[in-house]
Structures are given as C-alpha cells and as structure tokens.
Specification:
alpha/beta, Urease, subunit C, domain 1, TIM Barrel, 2 domains, nine-stranded mixed β-sheet, four-stranded parallel β-sheet, binds zinc ion
Length: 441
C-alpha cells in the first residue's frame, strides 16, 4: 500500500501529528506531516492515515504547537559571538574601526570555531534551518574552514558569503580574494547544504574590477553576491565620494545588481534605487534590531514589499543585536514598518511570517526542514490567530523541535548534535583568554 509515496513497512520515517500545520492553503488545525529520506513524503489535515502511523519509526506529538518549515536567518557574522554587548554608544563606522575590526583581527582559528558553534547552536534553538554567514576571513583559510566544519557538526544549512575588502584599511589583494573564493568553491561548495557565496563587505571598500570578477565567479556556481548596502547615511556619502554614485546606482552601473544580489540593510535608499531593486529582482535583507541598536535608521520595507522586492530578515551579528533571535527581529520588523509610516495595517502577520519562511509551506516533496513551535505558554495562549501568535508572541526559546534534512537536531529544546553546556563553558574560557590578550583585563 502506498500513501503519498510512503510504502507500508518502510520503517524510519518521522510522523508529526496533532499540531497546527502551515499548508499552502492556510493552517490545518490539526494536521500531520510524514518525513522520510530528507523529504516531506505526506502531509494533510486531520489525523494521519493508519498506514502512516504504522510506517513511522518515530511519532512526535505537536499538540499545542505550530508545525512549519524551518526559518531563514539571512544575515549574521559568527565572529561577533565573541563580541556580544560591544555596540555601546558608537555610530557604525566608528564602532567598526575602534572595536569590531581590531577584535576580529585578534581571533585565533580555535576561537573562530567556538564562536561559529555557539552562533549555530543559538540559531538552531531559534528554529533557523538555513543561516547566511557573512564571513570575515581574518587571516588565512583556517578561519573559514573552521566555520564550515562547525556547520557540518551542527547540521544547519549554511550559505557562507566570503567577506572581502580590497580598499581602505588592511585591503586584501584582489588575486588572493579570487584564489580563496575558487578554493572554497572547490573544497566546500555543496548546493543546498553548504553554499559558498561572494561577500563583498560594503560599497565603499570594494573596487569595481574585483566586484565584477567575484560576481562573475559566483555566477558560475549560481551563487549570490551578498553585500552591506546603505546601512548608514555616512556610508552613502562615502560611496558617493569614491564612485560618484549612490550605492544601488553604483551596483547597477557596474553590472552587479541582478537576481543573485542580496542587498543587506538598504536603509538609506532614494526612490529610484528602490525601483531598480525591484526591476533587477534583487533581494533585500532587512536587519531591524541591528539597525535600532546602532541607531542606523529604518529601512523602507513596506515600500520594498509594495514594489514586489523579495525581502528576508537577518539578525545581523551578535555585536549589534545582540542575539540571534529571528523572532524578535520579525516582531521588530512589523513594529518599525508600522511606526515609520504611522500605519497599523502594514505587514499583517501572515505576510510578515513570509519574511522568515520565504513563503515556503509544508507540502509533499519539500525538503524535510521542519520546526515545531510551542504556543501553549502564557505569552501566547490561548491562540486566536496562529500567524499573530508566531509573529507577535513568539520568542526563539519557544522553538521546541528542529529537523533539518529529515534529521532531528533539537528535540523538546534539547540540542542533540553537540554537548551544549560543555560548548558554552569552552566559549566562556576562550573569551577570558581573548580579553587578557587584548589587555582588557
Ligand atoms: Zn552585517
């Protein structure tokens, strides 16, 4: 007997039942999902058919929980896990020059490994199944390799956007950037699992020639170019001074604005720049909590959505957020869009939720990346509306179970892939050593 392609007796599948399931046509209350061999093999409303119950190797009860595709954190910097709480009172460029860049340069590969592991585990706790790591290389390939290995250990899907700057402070030679990118594609690029992307640091530290070459190289692998753009007014001024164009205009003029371009922040754009993002099919990554902590401004997200621009959310690094809680970022995105426009109708919860699911739903044939979010607690219950409960009531700590590629990485809040208490202890000890080396204590 076959149900949704599931053969009776094919043991080992995971059946999730009795939860509210985010389906293409809306919520099934309740519904069920059957996962096997890395895919959703069957899903539907009501009780699961007896044949699925029989076929399942594991049955997870999702009573009182929402069942939805794993969410995306579209921008972070794991090196900053060892820099939490250091945003205090400095504007972006001064903050980078006085704190972030010197501290980043002082890291060892082992510290980078621990920072990445903690960052990945925090994302896992929040139900993130795909994270975009805008990765500062520091010194040599060991730092990047440590982050790639950490992603394999924790089991999240990761896009590693290899950061670079060939102008300004400590520029990297263009040849070295291209050689390292080629090496990363050769050694680590695995589509859908661990993808290497081009990660120019910003529009004011990257030359035209290297931008074009790295974007073309990424194109050979269908990979994105992921870049900070117009986070602050100061950055817009610096780009104008260097290239005589505003940031998005500059990207377009050099041929680096297309469907593979991910524009991070996009706070200070003029009307024409927003239009060009829509025309070129670029993605905006909105990081509202980071923008608030650094006092950078409010990105015009409602305008982007109205123009049909694809928008995803990012927490940004822990030095400017200071958590990786994508749910907090989601609520901030809703609140900021409404207050900036004095319009409470903007970003209704079901639309807002798409900013972290990228519009994915639970359906047959989709990758088995599923999360269970507990809604039976005093901050959310009783639930009138599931989209509201997820968008406005949920914290990262409410995520109960996380499955990536059909593998349970966290169950009922317990991380199964790494000894979390030991990791946190190691990271604390590493931070003490780092502070001593920097002469901070
Ligand atoms: Zn960033």
């Amino acid at each position: 007997m076959s149900i949704g392609g599931v053969e009776r007796g094919s043991a080992g599948g995971i059946l999730i039942r009795d939860g509210a399931v985010l389906a293409p046509e809306g919520w099934w209350k309740p519904g069920y999902v059957y996962l096997e061999q890395g895919k959703v093999r069957a899903a539907g409303a009501g009780d699961p058919p007896p044949a699925l119950v029989e076929a399942a190797g594991r049955v997870l009860s999702a009573r009182g929980k929402a069942v939805l595709p794993g969410v995306i954190n579209a921008h972070t910097h794991f090196s900053q896990v060892l820099m939490r709480g250091l945003a205090g009172g400095r504007p972006l460029v001064q903050w980078l020059k006085e704190l972030i860049w010197p501290l980043q340069s002082a890291l060892t590969p082992e510290e980078m490994r621990l920072a990445a592991l903690v960052g990945l585990v925090e994302n896992l706790h929040c139900g993130v199944t795909h994270v975009v790591q805008h990765h500062k290389v520091v010194r040599g390939p060991a730092f990047t390799d440590a982050v790639c290995r950490a992603a394999q250990t924790v089991g999240l899907r990761m896009t590693l956007a290899r950061s670079w700057a060939d102008m300004g402070a400590n520029p990297e030679p263009a040849d070295a950037i291209l050689d390292d990118l080629r090496r990363l594609y050769r050694e680590w690029h695995q589509p859908g699992r661990l993808e290497i992307a081009n990660g120019p640091i910003s529009t004011w530290r990257c030359s035209v020639d290297t931008m074009q070459k790295t974007h073309a190289l990424a194109g050979e692998f269908g990979a994105p170019t992921h870049i900070h753009v117009a986070e602050t007014q100061e950055e817009v001024e610096m780009t104008l001074e260097l290239f005589g164009r505003r940031p998005v205009d500059w990207l377009e003029s050099i041929g680096v604005l297309d469907q593979r371009t991910q524009v991070v922040h996009a706070v200070w754009l003029e009307e024409g720049e927003k239009q060009r993002l829509a025309e070129r099919g670029a993605t905006v990554v909105h990081c509202p909590v980071s923008n608030m902590v650094l006092g950078s401004g409010i990105a015009p997200v409602a305008d982007f959505l109205r123009k049909g621009v694809r928008v995803l959310l990012g927490t940004d690094g822990p030095a400017s957020n200071d958590t990786q809680d994508i749910w907090e970022t989601l609520k901030a995105a809703v609140g900021l869009a409404r207050v900036a426009n004095l319009d409470p109708t903007l970003l209704p919860p079901a639309q807002a939720l798409r900013l972290i699911t990228d519009g994915r739903t639970v359906q047959e044939g989709a990758p088995a990346d599923i999360i269970l979010v507990n809604l039976r607690h005093a901050r959310a219950a009783p639930v009138h509306d599931l989209d509201s409960a997820l968008t406005l009531c949920t914290h990262g700590s409410d995520v109960d179970t996380v499955i990536v590629d059909g593998r349970i990485l966290m169950e009922e809040g317990r991380v199964l892939v790494i000894d979390e208490p030991a990791l946190l202890e190691e990271a604390e000890s590493a931070l003490r050593h780092l502070r001593r080396r920097l002469g901070w204590e």
